[in-house]
Amino acid sequence: MENLPVPRLTGRLVFRELAGLLGLLVSDPRRGLRRLSRFVGLARARVLLRKCRCGALVVALGDVQVEGRGEVHIGDRVQLAGGMFATKLTTLEGATLSIEANTLLSYGVTIRTARRIRIGKRCQIASMVVIRDQNEHTIAPVNIGDDVWLAYGAIIEPGVTIGAHSVIGAGAVVRSDVPPFSLAQGNPATWTTIDRAPVSSAG
Amino acid sequence: MRVEQLTRPAATVEHGAGGGPVVLAAGSVITAIRLRRCAAVGRRVRAFGRIWIHGDGRVLIGDDVTLDGSHAPIELFAWADADLVIGSGTRIEGGASIECTRSIRIGARVRVGTFARIMDNHFHALLGNRHVSPEPQPVVIGDDVVLGPRTIVMAGATIPAGTVHGAASIVRRDRRRTARVPDA
């Protein structure tokens, strides 16, 4: 998916897309409205994420609050869903938050960066997840690998590295590193490799 | 603490305390507007604050249900062809989010705490293509159950009647041993 070329925004492309949208609204209103909301999301991301360095085709379907003077890098095709609560990206001065391409964020995600947080490619981050790199005692960078799935309400504590393809279960509090291809659950989270995990126990 | 004490409906805010029938009628009209997307709503249902009901499925609400979204919104989300049933006398606190892809049944006199989450699907596979939702596993919550704040009830969970789950507990298909059934 990430190898798809990002189209250049030209007058002809905009005209063709708008014509397609109008046609779809007439022929299949439900799909048309869904596509319209995507266009609105593209425009919304431009406004809400104006302080960030955004890649192409970033979509924000809900409220996003970007606070602080730090740097926020958002890759191509990152999608921020809408819902009951706003997603909050707080980045302190001198800190860097990078969310790499094709990552999906649900609503109500809180990411507080004091120094460095990296979220890899194609991650799936569910609602009410909290990621922070500073607590009462330390500041330590957080590194989340590619293809990681953070389930509902997971909390990632400072200094944690999560390996690629891992799954953090719903409501887990992760305070130590999680290797690749593992399932972490509980508070504090303990992990097993995904092969040994009971089927569908992540949430 | 006895079950009756835990499940007794807490004092609810009356629409315009001491107000006349006009105020009460206005309150029920507002409730009807807030719950307009439900397939069925019982009698004496009270809804406060923002109740976000969406999806193409059916949301069925029994008698005497209280949805208190006054300090944080409540989400009731039923996908197409899904049935979300809320039994009579149940109280749902603000911030609770219930997402139903096929079937969630909440019994009578249940208390769902603030920021609780109930879902009948894992939404992603552990391995392989994580963009495809797996098969839903229906959730059944018995009568007089208490779900503490920030409880997460996951796909396939069956909670026996009278169970009390403390704050931030996680209920999976294989139920946790921390759940306790108090003597009724």
Low-pLDDT sequence parts of chain A? none
Number of strands of chain A: 20
Percentage beta strand of chain A: 25-35%
SS content category of chain B? mainly beta
The tally of helices of chain A reads: 2
Strand share of the residues of chain B?
25-35%
Report on this model:
The complex is a heterodimer of chains A (203) and B (184). With 203 residues, chain A is α/β, with parallel strands linked by helices. In chain A, 18% of the residues lie in helices and 29% in strands. Chain A contains two helices and 20 strands. Chain A has helices at 11-27, 29-48, and strands at residues 53-54, 59-60, 64-67, 71-74, 79-80, 87-91, 96-99, 104-105, 110-113, 116-119, 124-125, 130-132, 142-144, 149-150, 155-156, 161-162, 167-168, 173-174, 182-185, 190-193. Chain A has an eight-stranded mixed sheet. Chain A has a six-stranded parallel sheet with strand order 1-4-7-10-13-16, with no helix packed on it. Chain A has a six-stranded parallel sheet with strand order 3-6-9-12-15-18, with no helix packed on it. The radius of gyration of chain A is 18 Å and the shape is globular. Chain B is mostly beta strands and 184 residues long. Chain B is built from two helices and 16 strands. In chain B, the strands form two sheets. In chain B, strands 2, 4, 6, 7, 9, 10, 12, 13, 15 and 16 form a ten-stranded parallel sheet that branches. In chain B, strands 1-3-5-8-11-14 form a six-stranded parallel sheet, with no helix packed on it. The termini of chain B are close together. The model of chain B is unreliable at 1-17 (pLDDT under 50). The A-B interface holds A 83-85, 124, 126-128, 147, 149, 152-153, 165, 167, 169-171, 183, 187, 194, 197-203 and B 52, 72-73, 75, 95, 97, 115, 117, 119, 122-127, 130, 134, 137, 150, 152, 154-156, 168, 170, 172-174.
